[in-house]
């Protein structure tokens, strides 16, 4: 059996970066670090430039790294919920794949007219 890995979790919000580290020792996960760092200014993920967002994220992560020695190689990231549009739609299970995609695109365009279906993951 393969040993389970240590892991880091990063939770990104508009105003802060939260950090947790779990280490697997003696057949259980142990929470070894929990911390957060606030951004110098809130991030607007829609209108801010990518370089600004990356600089704010890097500065917050560097602040956390200065306080903790990391022992993990796996990283899990959680994004703000406003990044996602979730919908549950009824559909006819006799539709072919292409027809189902067309139906989904039509439903999506009516539920979220301000978004492009091309920017979605199916």
Question: How would you describe what is shown here?
Answer:
β1 and β2 form a beta hairpin. The two termini are 34 Å apart. Strands 3-2-1-4 form a 4-stranded mixed beta sheet. The model has no long low-confidence stretch (mean pLDDT 88). 6% of the residues are buried. It is flat. It is α+β, with helices and mostly antiparallel strands and 122 residues long. It has 2 domains: 75 residues, ATPase, nucleotide binding domain (Nucleotidyltransferase, domain 5); 38 residues, no CATH class. The protein contains 2 helices and 4 strands.
Major sheet description:
4 strands, mixed
User: What is the distance, rounded to the nearest whole angstrom, between the alpha carbons of the first and last residues?
Assistant: 34 Å
Mean pLDDT, to the nearest integer, reads: 88
Amount of beta strand:
25-35%
CATH architecture of the largest domain: 2-Layer Sandwich
Give the strand order, joined by hyphens, for the main sheet. 3-2-1-4
Element order: H for helix, E for strand:
EEEHEH
Radius of gyration: 20 Å
| Alpha-beta classification | alpha+beta
Total number of helices: 2
What is the CATH first-level class name of the largest domain? Alpha Beta
- The dominant shape is flat
Write out the CATH superfamily name of the largest domain: ATPase, nucleotide binding domain
Q: What count of structural domains?
A: 2
Low-pLDDT stretches:
none
Helix content: 25-40%
Q: Tally the beta strands.
A: 4
CATH topology of the largest domain: Nucleotidyltransferase, domain 5
